[in-house]
Amino acid sequence: MCHMKKVSLRELHEETGAWVREAARLGAITITDRGKPIARITAVGEEARRNAFRTRILRPGYAALRGKLSGGADSTAIVAEDRAKR
Length: 86
Known about the structure:
- By secondary structure, the chain is an alpha+beta fold.
- The chain is about 45% helix and about 20% strand.
- It has one domain (about 5-70): YefM-like fold.
- The protein has helices at about 10-15, 15-25, 45-50, 60-65, 75-85, and strands spanning about 5-10, 30-35, 35-40.
- It has a 3-stranded mixed β-sheet.
């Protein structure tokens, strides 16, 4: 996991080129205004390289159940049945 660098809007304004090159090297830089994050500079293609959903690690319990789970209850039928009882 990479540590995300933060830079103030004023610093970015003063040295834009250097920070853009730094983003290409580090991967992402968060821009802050008065300490609050307002934007992010990322390297081109960074999002395409890393898809968190595809590269996620499943918890062992879920991985063991994966493929064994099927269907489930239809909540609309359960609610309708409950309402009909009243």
